Every structure is written in structure tokens, then in C-alpha cells.
Amino acid sequence: MTRGIFGNGSQKKTAKPLVFAQMSGLRGLGGAAGLGDVVPWQCWDKPGFKDGHAQNFAKAATYCKGLDPNLYGGDINACIGETTDALDWDNLVPKLCPPVKVSGGITWRNSTPNASVKKLQADLNVYMKKNGFDLLAVDGLLGSGTCGAANFIDQLEGTTFYRDYQLDKVCQTGKVPTKGGKPVTTVAVTPQVTITPGGATVAQMNLPWDTVSADTAEVQRILNTQLDSADMNQIAVTSKLDAPTCGAMRWQKNTQGIDMLSQQGKLCQGFIDPTKKIKVATPVVVKPPSDVLPTGPTTAPPKTSLASTTTMGLLAAVGAVGIYWYGKKSNWF
């Protein structure tokens, strides 16, 4: 599991398999949730949970005394922790604080209200009110306000709303909560945590400048999600801390209220601010000129009057007689 900008929930432990057949009384333990699952944070405030947890811890300590060196690398504390969690899941969690059940699938900016999102918003508002933040609209619609509030409250209160509702797979951006309509102080982002087969490796707080790093690539991808959602041009995923990455961190802190710059970006040596996407104007289609010449009013030929027609006929007759007479004289006929 990788914790990004919004993934602030408790880290899920990587458990090595317990051989329950060797542990009398624990056979089949943890089957309901899977061994190694962290107990939901809501459980700790439930009446009776802490007492039950203490009893489970004592049982786990007893069972782990004769730990097989091949289990947990011989680490008795790891054995006790994992076994206690398994006992809690087996006899406390299902009764006192069952995990959140997401109904119908949560989608980004859904148009139809979702029951799970409504519950999330109502539960978040308890903490929003406690801390003096503007309350969320309990409308069942998932947007940047709900996503940002879940992330912020998780960091402030140690809750796991973001993880419980799997918002890391849905949310595309988040807004910092406001007080009286004004943004609260910026959120400090915790380092990335990457689970490896051998255990958990915590990413560096200070990403190395101009050096290839998988953690830097992850930060760049997170930044690009924020940039794209704000209609900004994305940066290149170079896996190196460079000026464009540092500029994007500074932009994110100043405009989104999310501060990666003071932690992952401490070693920045240059800044190139991201640029706004250029929206291409819709071209205006101009029809080509027609090949057919325009037709205008035609001028009618002058009308010939009856008198002029008669005159022309007489003249033609006279001419014909003259030609005949001249021809006779000249022996033409």
C-alpha cells in the first residue's frame, strides 16, 4: 500500500504467517478479517473495547513466550502485536466496531446520491464541528470538498476515513476545509510509505536533488493529478527532483493548501512554475465563395415600336426597287 497526498490511514502491517496448529486455543484465529489487519480506529472509543484489548494482549503475550525462531524472525514483540490484532478481530471488532461497508460503489463526482458518501459526510461533520470548520453538505455526492475534508481530518484526528472508504482509488483532487469561508492553514503531507516483502520502508523526507528515486516519481505522479484537475500542464515524470517538480510543489502549497514543499521538497535548488493549459478556440467555419457568378437584374432589350417597324419596312422596299432599277440599267437582269 502506498500512502499518497490523501492516504493518511494507519499502515496495514505485513504479517508473516502464524502456525495456529502450534498454538493451542488460537486455531483458526483471525479468519474473519485476515491476519495482520489493523484494528479500525473507531474501536478505541467504544465502551469495553480497551478492556477486551488488554485481555487479548495478555493472551498473546502468553502464547508468544515460546516463539518458534522461524516465526517473525524470532521477534516476540511482532508476534504479540499480530496475535493481539487477530484476537481483537476475532472477538471484539465484529461486535463493537465492524468495518465500514461501502454500498453501491463510490464514484468521483457522482450525480446520484450515495448512501455511503452521506454517512461519510455526516461522520466527518462531527469532527468538522469539533474543530470549528465549515460543515459539509450531506448530499451523498463525492467531490473535492469531501475528499479534502477526509484527508485533513485523518491527519488532524488520527482517523482513517480516507482509507476506510478507499478514497485513494476514487478522489482526483481535494480542497482544504475552511473556517468562515476562508481556507485553514496548509496541510503537511506525511512521507510515502511503501510496503515491501520484508517489511515497511519509509520514504525519505527530503527527496534527493537531481538523483533518480522511486519516491520522487511517485510524488511527480501525485502532483500531476493535482495539476491536471486544475487545468494546469503536467510535469515530466523524470524520477528526479528538479525545478519543474519543485515549482509544482510550490504551486500546490500556494493554491491547493497541501504542503509537500517543506518536507519532500526541502532540497529544492530551483523552481519552474507550472503553466496553465491553453484552451484552443473553436475555429469558425467560413464557407468558401460560390463558383457560380451572382445573377443580377437583366436589362431587357429596347422595345421596337410599331411605327419604327413600318418605317424600316418601307426603307427596305425602296432600297430593293433602286437596286433592281440600277441592275436593269447595268444589264444585271
Q: What this model shows, in words?
A:
The chain is mainly alpha-helical and 333 residues long. Among the domains are: 20-96, no CATH class; 115-188, no CATH class; 203-259, no CATH class. 37% of the residues lie in helices and 5% in strands. It is built from nine helices and six strands. The strands form three sheets. It has a two-stranded antiparallel sheet with strand order 1-2. It is globular.
The average pLDDT score comes to 74
Structural class by helix and strand composition = mainly alpha
Strand content: under 5%
Q: What's the helix count?
A: 9
Terminal Cα separation, in Å? 126 Å
| SSE pattern | HHHHHHEEEEEHHEH
Would you report the number of β strands?
6
Strand and helix map with partners:
Elements: H1 49-63, H2 76-91, H3 93-96, H4 115-130, H5 144-157, H6 161-164, E1 178-179, E2 182-183, E3 187-188, E4 193-196, E5 199-202, H7 214-229, H8 243-256, E6 258-259, H9 306-329
Parallel strand pairs: 3-6
Antiparallel strand pairs: 1-2, 4-5
Helix pairs in contact: 1-2, 4-5, 7-8
